Amino acid sequence: MKYSIIKDHDWLLILTVFALASFGVLMVFSSSYVEGMYMGEGGSGDPYFFLKRQAVWFLLATILFIFFMHFNYHVFKKLTPYILILSFLSLFLVLVGFGSSGGGAQRWLQLGPFRLQPSEFVKLGMVIYLAQVYSQKQVYIHKFIKGVLPPLIVVGLIFILIMRQPDLGTATAILMVTFFIIFLSGARWIHIIGLGVVGGSLFTVLAVSESYRFRRLTSFVDPFADPMNDGLQLIQGYIAFAHGGLTGTGLGGSVQKLLYLPEAHTDFILAIISEELGILGVLFVLACYGVILFKGVLIGIKCKNPFGSLLAFGIVFQLAIQVVFNIGAVSGLLPITGITLPLVSNGGSSLLVTMVSIAILANISRHNIRQNRLKEDFDNQVKTA
Q: Where is this protein found (predicted)?
């Protein structure tokens, strides 16, 4: 079997990822330089503060992308115990005095000049763990106690640690991915429906248990009922969309980023994209996501290895959840959960994990392509023998 660096890589997937991530760095700068200048996080007063930080993360993410694109994804099966230990340890450290706070939550670890959000890494870690464990339970996946339940205990503990931060959006995303992987593993419908009822009930209880959380989850229904508090962010986002129109005000021409729209460079960066580049800019973002998700689904379908297939579908669904949650929140169709727009929003941990996740997809695709080429070479040898 001949190796070809051109033919053995999914270049459409790779180029789309880098196009969107590069566009994200540009939009982080455009949406944040006013805040960097006047707010000056840490008193910096530097309009390039967020750009420089995001550019460093993008460079690091690029290096890791290249590495994991060529890292045999099968090795993750052996690394799963260590991934679980690191997941629990990082979340535990956040809660016992080593974490840093922001926005009323304690979700980060300060490691020198870098501030990491462990829950972002845990999301990928849980996809790897669930793909590994359920790929080995195919024989008795129809049995709830022996097949379905054991991994849910681990997921439950992770869920509790993340909710202690608190971060309902990330915790819910992990539960949804877990449910999806169980479904793809071939669990019985009665078990799937039962887990759906339990998960929905748990979300409802958590949503109404804290008044601030309930207000945040329901304010999207009528943001104008409280335009100066819970509805402020969404209303300012609406204004940005309306101001942009079809072609936008031009790169750098946003008015809402002048400290009117909270979290303009993170949660609501899509609103700034719409304001400056119009609906066409939004369509570009959506087209990139469409290519990435479509390619990811094809990779999962073509992979004949149960672990690789579940891993690919888990990564794709995790990414899709984040995209839907963010765009739904910015457009007012879903509650605001604080989940950022993958590859585009400011945030080093999110960018790093998303690019590593897609690099794993590219690696699975590479194995698929090489396996198909091996089969073709074998068939040709048989025909010519």
A: Cell membrane
**3-state secondary structure labels for all residues of 250-299:** CCCCCCCCCCCCCCCCCCCHHHHHHHHHHHHHHHHHHHHHHHHHHHHHHH
Dihedral angle, C-alpha 270, 257, 346, 19, nearest 10 °: 50
Decide: helix, strand or coil at residue 109.
strand
Phi, psi angles (nearest 5°) of residue 137: -105, 20
Distances (CA, A) of 167 to 85, 117, 172, 240: 20, 11, 9, 27
Tens of pLDDT, residues 113-129 = 778 889 999 999 999 99
Helix/strand/coil for 166: coil
d(CA 219, CA 185): 37
Which stretches of 305-347 are DSSP H helices? 306-331
The 10s digit of each residue's pLDDT in 132-187 is 999 998 888 889 898 889 999 999 999 999 988 888 889 999 999 999 999 999 89
